[in-house]
Amino acid sequence: RERRPPQVLFFPAPVTCVRPLLLSSPGHCNCSRSHRESALSCLTRLLLSARRSLDVCVFTISSVELSSSVLAVHGRGVRVRVITDSDYMALAGSQVGAFRRAGIEVRHDQDANYMHHKFAVIDGLILITGSLNWSAQGIFGNKENVIIIKSTDVVKEFIEEFERLWNEYDPS
Amino acid sequence: RERRPPQVLFFPAPVTCVRPLLLSSPGHCNCSRSHRESALSCLTRLLLSARRSLDVCVFTISSVELSSSVLAVHGRGVRVRVITDSDYMALAGSQVGAFRRAGIEVRHDQDANYMHHKFAVIDGLILITGSLNWSAQGIFGNKENVIIIKSTDVVKEFIEEFERLWNEYDPS
Ligand SMILES: [Zn+2]
Ligand SMILES: [Zn+2]
Question: Which of A27, A109, A111, B102 has a CA positioned 20 to 30 A from the CA of residue B125?
Fold first, then answer.
């Protein structure tokens, strides 16, 4: 059993550029934003660390940085599954259409209530969860928290919730 | 250092009545709803367990059950402080006005971004956090999670975030 205490990130994050993390070969970005470490770069690094699986269960997915990370992981051949909310998915700025065009499996709720979770599980081992939607306003504007948990008991419960919803939202 | 793993609650909860928990003397409720234990009764019991302090930092507070718990704790002389979002606070159904009328200290953000946290700290020892707003739709309708954490490191970080926001939102 893993007993390391959870790690906490608070937002808003400073507006930094994480593009160097997304380049496939070590690269340098010449844009005018800061490239220092931040709560956003920490989240980005975590998503990009996926080697076997990435399960995303998030209400709002519009952040270019975080969705680019998901697309990069998928592009490396990692199995990516995404559960999101049907109402938000249709709004401008949602990156869920880009996920589908890239071939990522996406499922969503079918009713008027919200699929309001904001969690992801990396390689079945690391849970990212909290109040943060994956949007620019969430990352750079709002007061938000994210907890990163490696406790096997807790991660297992969120994996089970993901599988329950994945089956519940099976369109076939 | 506390090393018990966090406890997790998933929502929606079954529609149960928690009124017996809120009665000051042991009582019985004759309403037609179920009175069995649920994720809602677990949250209610936790809030009611406050003996020294209850710090609430939640975007949406409209649930009659959870706000009644906060009012009951305040009524017993426990120091209750509430941080919430200014935009949501003004909407119909918000219980923040009832908190103020009861004499509970309430502070809120002053800008267009959201105070989007959904956490509470009980007696400086127990953290409740997650995706769940304190609303009937959140509790009885949406897919939501709440994590209950007693790890001193994590609770301390959320207490510090609460104090930062409490000072930032000081209206004086
Ligand atoms: Zn750059
Ligand atoms: Zn009843």
Answer: B102
Give the pLDDT confidence of A118-147 residue by residue, as tens digits: 999 999 999 999 999 999 999 999 999 999
Pairs across A and B, CB distance < 8 A: 104
Is B52 buried (19+), middle (13-18) or exposed (0-12) by CB count in 10 A? exposed
Three-class secondary structure of residue A85 per DSSP: coil
Architecture of domain B7-168 in CATH?
2-Layer Sandwich (3.30)
Give the residue numbers of B marked as catalytic. 116, 118, 123
How far apart are the CA of B26 and the nearest CA of chain A, in angstroms? 34
* Calpha distance A59→A96 (Å, rounded): 11
Q: Which pLDDT band holds residue B3 (cuts at 50, 70, 90)?
A: low
CA of B130: which chain A residue's CA is closest? Answer: A130
pLDDT, one tens digit per residue, over B95-147 is 999 999 999 999 999 889 999 999 999 999 999 999 999 999 999 999 999 99
Inform me whether the C-beta atom of residue A12 falls under 8 Å from chain B C-beta atoms. Answer: yes
CA dist., res. A38 & res. A18, Å (int): 9
Contact assessment for residue B130 and residue B142, using Cβ atoms and an 8 Å cutoff: no
What confidence score (pLDDT) does residue A96 get? 95
Asked whether the beta carbons of A108 and A169 are under 8 A apart, the reply is yes
Cβ-defined contacts of A17-22 (< 8 Å, 24+): A18/A44, A18/A65, A21/A45, A21/A48, A21/A69, A22/A48, A22/A68, A22/A69, A22/A72
Q: Rounded distance, CA A141 to CA A116, Å? A: 19
CA distance A20 to B101: 52
Query: Within chain B, where are the H helices?
Result: 19-22, 39-48, 64-75, 86-89, 96-101, 136-140, 152-168
Q: Which residue has the tokens 């009175």?
A: B35
Q: What is the ipTM of this complex?
A: 0.95
- CB contacts, 8 Å: B5 with chain A: 1, 151, 153-154
Asked if the C-beta of B129 comes within 8 angstroms of chain A's C-beta atoms, the answer is: yes
Choice among A79-88, A114-123, B88-97 with the minimum mean pLDDT: B88-97
